[in-house]
Amino acid sequence: MNIDYIKTRLNIFIGDTFGGVNAAIIALPQALAFGVATGFGAGAGIWGAIILSFIVGILGTKIPMISGITGPSAIVIASVMHALNKDISSVILVMFMAGIIQVVLSRSALLNVVKYVPYPVISGFMNGVGIIIIILQLNPLIGHPAMSNTIESIEYTFLNLSSINYDALLLGLMTLVIVFGIPKRINKVFPSTVLALIVCTLISIKLGYNVDKISNVAVGFPKISFPHASVHDIITYFHYAVMLSIILTAESLLTGLVCDSLTKTQSSPKRIILAQGVGNAVCALTGSLPGAAATMRTVAALKAGASTRIAAFVTPVVLVLLLFKFSGFVAEIPLAVLAGILIKIGYDIIDVKLLKVLRYAPKEDLYVLMLVFLLTVFYNLIVAVGAGITLAALLYAKRVADKARIVHKVVHKKEILTLEKEVEENYGHKIRIAHIDGQFFFGSATQLISKFDVMLGTKILIITYDADDLLDISAIFALEDIIERLNSQHIRILLVVGSEPVLNQLREHKIVAQIGVHHVFAEEMKAIEFAQKAIKRSK
Contact, 32 vs 46, CB < 8 A? Predict the structure, then answer.
């Protein structure tokens, strides 16, 4: 056997092992904390991460997708738990149906509909989830039981301020100092959440603090038990299952996009969701928590050297070893420490990227975002997403209707089209020219991202935006993503924008600065001439 081949396979295995271990270290505190937050318990969170990651490793893509309970899915399950009066068997039925719905989605064209959800809806929902996680941890942080919804949590936090458990508060504040204060360079090597978990739990044990703890964790392998359900139950709980499946699917697809960007590959969305659906159905049957492909854990695995699905098997093996070896220590973890960790996770979920550009965002996007955010935090997650999509569609329809008028517009000249083809052919496709025709909004933006994924052999890409319509916030972020992906492939971008209002908008959002002022043109001919000279200089 070839020595080089053996070395290559060994390096891949070592990378996958380190990646899987790294992901497991990050997954442990998150799975424990989310398990407690849902009301199912820490054991359900950790076993869900073990089972789901293992099944996704078998059925999923070649790229390692480290899966398990995440913030959005935990909040949805906690909301369902509250709505069904903590009827565990009914919630398990909802989780099982959600997994089956995912399997059905993976076999249908409906999966493509998810990518048309407007960015303000996603951002409003994610910001709402982040705030909910933080609010629900306020009572455990001061040593009192967690409430099941945000309004109750806020009310009881004020009531409980007169009876604070200062041991719990001290541990919670120490946790917050560690998770927020550890420098990024250290956090990359040793996650701050794990450090906080170990240090604060040891302090609690050594000083004998009187605080609420996890107390017991199911160490034994969970048993499969099919939920008892009537047709009436299935119909009654179906909308909860649909909502949960949408959240699990959307988060997994987002992680898939991130992985594709990092690895320069193209994974199958249908295969990702099929694996997630089967895994989530099995999790429900074992009384464990379903989840999604977790972006943070997957990226950590990739950056540690993981490149194949072996990493997805290493992670659950490490989690099982940790669970069996340190179950006694896990039982001693104070709930106030988990509260501090969850507050950090909630903060990380908040869409800081959007907050930075809020003052530039169109009013219509802000209306949608605020509606989804407020409904998510104070009313109902299912209603929030539905209302957000409906309002976004209505506002877009109004925007298009307001622009409807009879106009005479000069069609792109045939001479230019001929010249474009000649330039591409004469330069061996080192120069390519792409037109963004029509309005660049949330629907077209998601489709365009995939079209710019791979441009083999291209050195310069000229992107011409032909419309006069301003870009919405989804299109702005999509354009940023396109630029980042092409830059990672060492492709220089030239942007042609004829509309002054659009150009001003791109300046405000730092797109012009990202591309370079000298790479933005008002006329396509000037961009072509610039590209031709640049190619000749590089020879």
Answer: yes
Q: How many CA atoms lie within 13 A of 398 on its CB side?
A: 7
Angle at 370 between CA 367 and CA 376, to 5 degrees: 135
Stretch (H or E) spanning 333: none
Give the integer Cα–Cα distance in Å for 43 and 150.
Answer: 24
Nearest C-alpha neighbor of 38 from the set 46, 253, 386, 420: 46
Q: What is the pLDDT of residue 166?
A: 93
Alpha carbon distance 88, 291 (integer Å): 17
Would you state the pLDDT for residue 238?
A: 93
Token pair 């048993």 is found at 223
CA gap 65, 277 in Å, rounded: 14
- Other beta carbons within 10 angstroms of residue 11's beta carbon come to 12
Distances (CA, A) of 156 to 140, 161, 354: 11, 8, 31
* pLDDT score recorded for residue 421: 64
DSSP-assigned letter for residue 469:
S
C-alpha to C-alpha distance for 500 and 496, rounded to whole angstroms: 11
User: Tokens 């969970």 sit at which residue?
Assistant: 222
Residue 529 pLDDT > 60, yes or no?
yes
pTM for this predicted structure: 0.69
Q: Pairing relation of β-strands 460-465 and 431-436? A: parallel
Tens-digit pLDDT profile for residues 484-515: 777 777 788 888 888 888 888 888 888 888 88
Classify domain 414-538 by CATH architecture.
Answer: 2-Layer Sandwich (3.30)
Residue 12: which H helix or E strand, with range? helix 3-38
Spatial CB neighbours of 433, under 8 Å, sequence gap ≥ 6: 420, 423, 424, 461, 462, 464, 524, 528
Residue 450's pLDDT is what?
53
Residue 461 phi/psi, 5° resolution? -115, 125
Spatial contact of 246 and 253, defined as CB atoms under 8 Å apart: no
| pLDDT for the residue numbered 444 | 47
CB-count burial class (<10 Å; 0-12, 13-18, 19+) for 392: buried
Listed in sequence order, the residues at least 6 apart from 227 whose beta carbon sits closer than 8 Å to its beta carbon are 89, 92, 93, 96, 284, 285
Q: Which residues contact 244 (CB under 8 A, 6 or more apart)?
A: 73, 76, 77, 80, 94, 95, 98, 290
Whole-angstrom Cα distance, residue 410 to residue 388?
Answer: 37
Confirm if 51 and 27 have CB atoms less than 8 A apart. Answer: no
Report the C-alpha gap between 177 and 290 in whole angstroms. Answer: 31
User: What is the gyration radius of the CA atoms in the chain, in angstroms?
Assistant: 25
Name the nearest CA neighbour of 272 among 259, 288, 263, 285. Answer: 259
Q: Where are the domains positioned within the chain?
A: 3-391, 414-538
**How many angstroms separate the first and last alpha carbons of the chain?**
41
Please, are residues 47 and 156 in contact by the beta-carbon 8 Å criterion? no
